[in-house]
Amino acid sequence: MKQQVIIATKNSGKAKEFESLFSAFNIKVKTLLDFPDAIDVEETGHTFEENAVLKAETIASQFGQMVLADDSGLCIDALNGRPGIYSARYAGEEKDDEKNIDKVLKEMKDVPAGDRAARFYCALALAVPGEKTITVTGTCEGEILRERHGENGFGYDPIFFLKDKGVTMAEIPSSEKNKISHRAAALQNLYIILKDKLNQGEMK
């Protein structure tokens, strides 16, 4: 029977980003859309890693299967790392991208150009029942602009400026974003670990 992994998300677009990684190891990808009775895990951790591990281990325990979970967000140096783990709900519980951006821009209003460094951060946790959970991280460095630019992407992409490209994350196509994003970096790190485990015969 082909091994499978549950991606702890109901976002089919996000799941597709993981499919190519696991297909390289002949592992079938499922999502929480395939498991409607999955526990709705409350993210009570204090870090991205803690939240990712919490989600992965809870669902892995429920179904007795391998589970990959991620937690990610925007960390701004001038705001002491905020919005951080609260990125999705920074302006309120309803997850409003525009209100989140407005709040960040307001808080950054008086921050000078040289002090606007920020990064997107992603933590991945791969939990297998009875084994030690694997965690990896990835980042994408940038700066916070004073106004929105671009129509692509989502979340904070319109104000996240990529210095080496001279554009915001919202001004590049998704195909390019998927190569340079924080999630892409984390996936690459996970690929290295999975390949190593496979070579050592630790994955059947």
Automatic annotation (TrEMBL):
Substrate binds at T9, K10, N11, S12, G13, K14, S72, F154, G155, Y156, D157, K177, H182, R183. It catalyses: dITP + H2O = dIMP + diphosphate + H(+); ITP + H2O = IMP + diphosphate + H(+); XTP + H2O = XMP + diphosphate + H(+). It comes from the Bacteria. Keywords: Hydrolase, Magnesium, Metal-binding, Nucleotide metabolism, Nucleotide-binding. Its cofactor is Mg(2+). Mg(2+) binds at E42, D71. It holds the Pfam family Ham1p_like. The active site is at D71. The keyword Amino-acid biosynthesis does not apply. One of its GO terms (biological process) is purine nucleoside triphosphate catabolic process. Its EC number is 3.6.1.66. GO terms for cellular component: cytosol. SUPFAM superfamilies: ITPase-like. PANTHER family: INOSINE TRIPHOSPHATE PYROPHOSPHATASE, INOSINE TRIPHOSPHATE PYROPHOSPHATASE/HAM1 PROTEIN. HAMAP family: Non_canon_purine_NTPase. Homodimer. Belongs to the HAM1 NTPase family. Pyrophosphatase that catalyzes the hydrolysis of nucleoside triphosphates to their monophosphate derivatives, with a high preference for the non-canonical purine nucleotides XTP (xanthosine triphosphate), dITP (deoxyinosine triphosphate) and ITP. Seems to function as a house-cleaning enzyme that removes non-canonical purine nucleotides from the nucleotide pool, thus preventing their incorporation into DNA/RNA and avoiding chromosomal lesions. This is dITP/XTP pyrophosphatase. It comes from Heyndrickxia oleronia. The lineage of its organism: Bacteria, Bacillati, Bacillota, Bacilli, Bacillales.
